[in-house]
Amino acid sequence: MFEQELECGIKAVLGGCSVIRDVLASEVNDLAVLSKSSNRDMVTEADKQGEKRIRSIIAQTYPDHLVIGEETFKPKPTDGSSASEKDESGASLLTDAPTWIIDPVDGTTNLVYGIPYFSVLLALKVRKSTVVGIVFDLSNGELFYATAGGGAWLRKVDLGTLSLLGEESIQRLNCNKERLEVSQAMVVMDVGYSREAERVQVFTTWMSNLLTKGKACSLRILGSCGLDLAYLAAGRIDVYIHTGGIMIWDTAAGVLLIKEAGGTVLDLDGSEFQYRNRRMVAAATKDLSSAVISMNPLANP
Hints:
The protein is an alpha+beta fold. It is 31% helix and 24% strand. It has helices at residues 3-26, 45-61, 108-113, 197-212, 225-233, 248-260, 286-293; strands spanning 33-35, 42-44, 66-69, 99-106, 119-126, 129-137, 142-147, 151-158, 163-164, 171-172, 186-190, 218-220, 239-242, 264-266, 280-283. Strands 3, 4, 5, 6, 7, 8, 9 and 10 form an 8-stranded mixed sheet that branches.
C-alpha cells in the first residue's frame, strides 16, 4: 500500500535536494543565514528553496493534498495575539485530509557550521496517521523510508546524479534488539533551542543519570532529529531522547521508521507519544525505554 505516494515522495525529496545542493554550491563561501525563534534557530536559502521545490513536485501528482512545511509554517494563535507551545508543534493544522509534512533541511545548524550531518524529511499523513516517511541523508546518499504496514527500508542514492541505485542496494531496517541494557546502549539526546534553566537542568541531570547510574556505553548530541531517528531504526543507535521543542516535521517520518523497524516511541514519562507535547523517548525495545525513563529526574524528583 501507498507505493504511489512513496514514489512521489522520493521524487520530491531528491528534487528538493537538487535545489539545496545548487544553493550550497552557489553560496559555498557566504551562506546567508537568518534566525527564526532565536539566534540558535537558523534558516538558509537552501531551506526555503528546498521546501519550495518539494511542494511543487508533490503538487504535480497530488494537487489537492495539503502541505505543512517548516519554512512556511505560521503558529496558530489561541487568543488572537500569540501561539501556545502546543500549537507551535504544527499538529493543530492536521485534518483528516491527506497532508504532506516537510522539513527541507533538518539540522540546519550543522549545515551552517559545515558539519555533514543533516537530512531532508518528508512524511504523508492520511486521517492524521503517518502512512509514508522518508529521511534522506544528503551527505552519505542514504535514503531511509517506510510505509504503514510495509516495513522500514534503506536504499542508496548516487550523489552525482541524485538517482536511486539498483534494488540490490535495498536493506530492510530493524532496531537493534541485542543491546538490552543502558550500559550497552548508544544514546543520543537533544535539548532543542530553549535555554530555560528548568529545561536545561532536566537535560543535564538526565544525561548525568544515564552516565553515572546507567553507565551508558556512549552518549552523543548529533543535531538532526530525523536522521537520529532513522539511525535508531537502522540499529545504529539504541535510544533517542528529546527533552522539548521538536516539531511535527522533525519527527513524523522518523517515528514511522522506528515503529516499522520494531522500536518504541513514548513521551518522557512513559505515556503515549503526542506530537503536541514536542518531546520524546524512542528506543529499540520497551525494556530499554523503561530503563531510560526511570532515570528521568522528573520521574524521580
